[in-house]
């Protein structure tokens, strides 16, 4: 029972967690003075697009047997985020590394409520990501960022702090703006509905 209450509390708190920075504005690392010589990553992703990141290390970092690992997280327009995932980097040459993922939220196969509610609520809002440079020769590491995530926004996003278009932004929402009214109350209702379905699934597992 205690486990179920913890799950329910987490689901009701998650909708109020938003990305750092301004809605719709991507964030990324400042690489001057770091071991990263160049970095490129996808911006303004459509639902289902491949989000990619390519990094070039400087000569000193490559000579120190530096490796890269990362973490990603998909957040959806209903206001919650999926579980973080390992972001696997592949070394293409001595200096270049790359990683990719599918920028996709929920759908009616993974969450039936997405068929019943406004489907744009289940599209991905943004991709959260962070990276770690591991200097294997001296067993140290550098985190980018030191806490939290960088953010790459989608072409169809909703944020309660966005003052225009009833919270909607981007130019890729199917059917135009996305929601029938776009209100924050509507977003909260959809989020709580999704949360209650997950809670019900946990309850069934606990009572078996």
Describe the protein in words.
- The chain has four helices and eleven strands.
- It has helices at 2-13, 59-63, 113-116, 184-207, and strands at residues 36-41, 49-57, 66-76, 85-87, 90-91, 96-103, 124-135, 140-144, 150-153, 157-158, 168-169.
- Strands 3, 4, 7, 8 and 9 form a five-stranded antiparallel sheet that branches.
- The longest helix is centred in the C-terminal third of the chain and has 24 residues, at 184-207.
How would you summarize the topology of this molecule?
Blueprint: H1 2-13, E1 36-41, E2 49-57, H2 59-63, E3 66-76, E4 85-87, E5 90-91, E6 96-103, H3 113-116, E7 124-135, E8 140-144, E9 150-153, E10 157-158, E11 168-169, H4 184-207
Antiparallel strand pairs: 1-2, 2-6, 3-4, 3-7, 5-6, 7-8, 7-9, 10-11
Helix pairs in contact: 1-4
Find the structural class using helix and strand composition. alpha+beta
Low-pLDDT residue spans: 1-18, 178-194, 196-208
Label the overall shape: elongated
- From the N-terminal CA to the C-terminal CA, the straight-line distance is 13 Å
Proportion of residues in β-strands:
25-35%
């Amino acid at each position: 029972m205690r486990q179920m209450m913890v799950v329910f509390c987490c689901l009701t708190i998650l909708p109020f967690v938003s990305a750092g920075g301004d809605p719709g504005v991507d964030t990324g690392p400042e690489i001057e003075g770091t071991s990263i010589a160049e970095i490129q990553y996808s911006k303004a992703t459509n639902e289902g697009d491949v989000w990619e990141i390519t990094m070039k290390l400087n000569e000193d970092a490559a000579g120190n047997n530096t490796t890269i690992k990362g973490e990603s997280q998909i957040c959806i327009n209903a206001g919650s985020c999926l579980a973080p995932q390992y972001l696997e980097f592949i070394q293409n040459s001595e200096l270049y590394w790359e990683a990719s993922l599918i920028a996709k939220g929920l759908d009616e196969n993974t969450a039936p409520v997405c068929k019943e509610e406004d489907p744009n609520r289940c599209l991905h809002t943004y991709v959260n990501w962070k990276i770690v440079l591991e200097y294997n020769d001296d067993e140290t590491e550098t985190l980018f960022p030191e806490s939290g995530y960088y953010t790459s926004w989608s072409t169809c996003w909703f944020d309660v702090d966005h003052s225009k278009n009833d919270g909607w932004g981007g130019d890729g929402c199917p059917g135009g703006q996305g929601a029938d009214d776009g209100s924050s109350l509507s977003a909260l209702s959809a989020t709580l509905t999704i949360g209650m379905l997950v809670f019900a699934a946990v309850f069934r597992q606990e009572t078996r």
